[in-house]
């Protein structure tokens, strides 16, 4: 609702959504960014709101599409998250699921490279897509809080 | 596709599933290894170094200088070998016999006692693969594998699925940490972290044995009895339990008797095994090789075909009492790991250092030979902390000789 208040509320449909409310929902789900609203970006009277909104969504820059951030300075590559991650186990039960080297890297969300965890194939992450859930398998298993979702 | 895996010799776990990218004879990227392993694998150097009195010389001069030192010594000390292959260790034992040397490794002031107990079958043991496949309760006592052996929990003890543990750590495994501080491992263990005061381990063991027998557990530091009883109940229900013993526990006990008593008490009610958390990659190998040869795991002195054993032949005591008159240090840095008051006595005798790294000891040595890193630049075999033999091969080439080659040449020169 707060996001909606900052939008033009004209339901101009220029963004492709049917209403400003729908745009706010899409913004919330991180499907769209504030730049996708043409009036907000172009018209000077919305400049303040535009800057505010950009500021809100700034932390997600540098994060992956699911909002996963790996703090590389904290991570020491123990691989707890790699082995505990449910999609990793499902896609490679006898490799990373059993604590061993990955045998199916094309479908793994997390792998350890040069001693630091690397996120990839985010389409497989349970936090991604329409049926997403707030899985926290990689966060609770990390001893140094090196993984974070924004 | 068959993958080409290497063994990481960064710690006692000897992870055997490491992939590397090599470019121009240099390791560029390391996959699956932890940060300790990556630093270790990337540490290779192509050029060799032979120094006498910190001045570069050729290989023959350095070897003959080393042989002269050992020949002239009446009681040389051979110390280290925790990061040498089995083959090099066997040669070092031969060399010690030939030179009537005092032979010891770092286990004399860490987990040597535990390994001796295991080799004498004083308690039940298991391999790390058994832990992965079967273990439902793991106790980390006086050890923090998250920092010392980072992949211990993810590769074996807690997180992986095993043949008999397919439903994962949340449902089928319990990790318990007993330590003096809230370590990174303790954080993962959550509510099953039992914080005891330094030196309180023996009392905690007694209390736990009492709790296992159904008595009220008491400690002088008033540890909540309810929590000890709760712990005893979990342990009683274990189908396959493992106690990972670290230096924290060994340093706190006067001798191993309480630990053996605890293992016996646990095995009356459940099924428990002991695995020592050994830091260096082949300390266990040294202990086993020497045990096979002499019946002792460390601190021995060879003299006229006989073997003497006792604390007086350990590195600490022999340096303290100045009973040795030369030293051959292999893959260890006494100046960094021993107290200054003891290590400084090394300055009074001629020292030969074989080490891949330049260390404080190597800078103060008479002869320094920069050797290859096993598992990265040279091959061989080693014994993992649970007693399983692991073979490894080199990933890159180097001009540096391996410990084994140098020891062989010193033997020939003698």
Give a short overview:
Chain A: InterPro entries: 4Fe-4S_dom, 4Fe4S_Fe-S-bd, 4Fe4S_Fe_S_CS, ACDS_complex_subunit. The complex is a heterodimer of chains A (150) and B (414). Chain A contains 7 helices and 4 strands.
Architecture overview:
Chain A is α+β, with helices and mostly antiparallel strands and 150 residues long. Chain A contains seven helices and four strands. Chain A has helices at 2-6, 20-28, 38-42, 47-56, 80-84, 86-91, 137-140, and strands at 68-70, 110-113, 116-119, 147-149. In chain A, the strands form two sheets. Chain A has a two-stranded antiparallel sheet. In chain A, strands 2-3 form a two-stranded antiparallel sheet. In chain B, helix 10 (201-212) packs across helix 11 (225-236). Chain B folds into two domains: 47-108 and 281-372 and 398-413, Rossmann fold (3-Layer(aba) Sandwich), CATH 3.40.50; 112-276, 3-Layer(aba) Sandwich (Dimethylsulfoxide Reductase, domain 2), CATH 3.40.228. The N and C termini of chain B lie far apart (49 Å). Chain B has a nine-stranded mixed beta sheet with strand order 4-3-16-15-14-5-6-12-13. In chain B, strands 9-8-7-10-11 form a five-stranded parallel beta sheet. A two-stranded antiparallel ribbon of chain B has the order 1-2. Chain B has 414 residues and is α/β, with parallel strands linked by helices. The A-B interface holds A 75-80, 82-84, 89, 93, 97-103, 111-116, 141, 143-144 and B 3, 5, 17-19, 29-39, 132, 146-147, 150-151, 153-156, 158-162, 168-169, 184-185, 187-188.
Strand count, sense and barrel status of the largest sheet of chain A are: 2 strands, antiparallel
Overall average pLDDT of chain A:
84
Instruction: Give the spatial strand order of the biggest sheet of chain B.
Output: 4-3-16-15-14-5-6-12-13
Order of helices and strands of chain A: HHHHEHHEEHE
Shape of chain A: elongated
Largest interface: A-B, 27 and 36 residues
Distance between the termini of chain B: 49 Å
CATH topology of the largest domain in chain B: Rossmann fold
Structural class of chain A: alpha+beta
* Unreliably modeled segments of chain A: none
Oligomer type = heterodimer
CATH C-level label of the largest domain in chain B: Alpha Beta
Question: What is the alpha-carbon Rg of chain B in Å?
Answer: 22 Å
In the CATH hierarchy, the third-tier topology of the largest domain in chain A is known as Alpha-Beta Plaits
In the residues of chain A, how many domains can be counted? 2
Residues in helices of chain A, as a percent range: 25-40%
The CATH class of the largest domain in chain A is Alpha Beta
Q: How many strand elements of chain A?
A: 4
């Amino acid at each position: 609702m707060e996001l909606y208040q900052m939008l033009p509320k004209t339901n101009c449909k220029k963004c492709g959504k049917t209403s400003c409310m729908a745009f706010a929902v899409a913004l919330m789900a991180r499907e769209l960014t504030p730049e996708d609203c043409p009036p907000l970006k172009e018209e000077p009277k919305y400049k303040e709101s535009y800057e505010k909104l950009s500021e809100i969504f700034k932390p997600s820059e540098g994060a992956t599409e699911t909002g996963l951030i790996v703090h590389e300075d904290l991570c020491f590559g123990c691989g707890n998250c790699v082995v505990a991650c449910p999609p990793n186990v499902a896609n490679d039960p006898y490799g990373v699921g059993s604590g061993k080297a990955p045998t199916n890297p094309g479908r793994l969300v997390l792998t350890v490279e040069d001693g630091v965890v690397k996120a990839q194939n985010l389409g497989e992450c349970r936090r991604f897509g329409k049926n997403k859930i707030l899985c926290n398998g990689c966060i609770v298993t990390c001893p140094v809080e090196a993984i974070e979702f924004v | 596709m068959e993958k080409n895996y290497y063994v990481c010799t960064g710690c006692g776990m000897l992870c055997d599933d490491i992939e590397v990218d090599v470019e121009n004879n240099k390791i560029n990227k390391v996959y699956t290894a932890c940060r300790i392993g990556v630093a270790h694998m990337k540490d290779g150097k192509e050029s060799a170094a032979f120094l006498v009195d910190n001045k570069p010389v050729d290989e023959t001069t350095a070897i003959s200088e080393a042989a002269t030192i050992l020949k002239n010594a009446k009681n040389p000390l051979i110390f280290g070998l925790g990061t040498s292959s089995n083959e090099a260790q066997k040669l070092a034992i031969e060399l010690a016999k030939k030179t009537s040397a005092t032979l010891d490794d770092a286990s004399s002031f860490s987990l040597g006692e535990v390994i001796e107990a295991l080799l004498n079958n004083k308690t039940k043991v298991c391999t790390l693969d058994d832990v992965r496949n079967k273990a439902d309760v793991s106790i980390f006592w006086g050890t923090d594998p998250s920092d010392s052996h980072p992949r211990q929990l993810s590769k074996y003890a807690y997180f992986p699925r095993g043949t008999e543990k397919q439903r994962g750590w949340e449902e089928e495994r319990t990790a318990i940490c007993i330590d003096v501080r809230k370590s990174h491992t303790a954080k993962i263990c959550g509510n099953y972290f039992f914080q005891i005061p330094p030196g309180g381990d023996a009392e905690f063991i007694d209390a736990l044995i009492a709790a296992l027998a159904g008595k009220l557990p008491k400690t002088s530091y008033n540890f909540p009895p309810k929590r000890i009883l709760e712990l005893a109940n979990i342990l009683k229900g274990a189908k396959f339990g493992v106690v990972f013993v670290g230096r924290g526990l060994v340093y706190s006990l006067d001798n191993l008797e309480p630990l053996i008593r605890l293992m016996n008490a646990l095995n009356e009610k459940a099924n428990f095994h002991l695995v020592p958390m050994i830091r260096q990659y082949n300390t266990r190998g040294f202990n086993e090789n020497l045990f096979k040869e002499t019946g002792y795991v460390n601190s021995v002195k060879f003299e006229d075909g006989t073997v003497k054993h006792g604390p007086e032949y350990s590195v600490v005591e022999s340096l303290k009492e100045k009973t040795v008159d030369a030293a051959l240090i292999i893959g260890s840095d006494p100046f960094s790991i021993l107290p200054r008051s003891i290590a400084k006595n090394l300055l009074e005798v001629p020292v030969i250092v074989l080490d891949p790294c330049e260390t404080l000891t190597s800078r103060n040595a008479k002869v320094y030979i920069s050797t290859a890193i096993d598992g990265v630049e040279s091959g061989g075999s080693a014994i993992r902390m649970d007693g399983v033999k692991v073979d490894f091969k080199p990933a890159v080439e180097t001009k540096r000789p391996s410990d084994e080659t140098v020891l062989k040449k010193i033997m020939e020169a003698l």
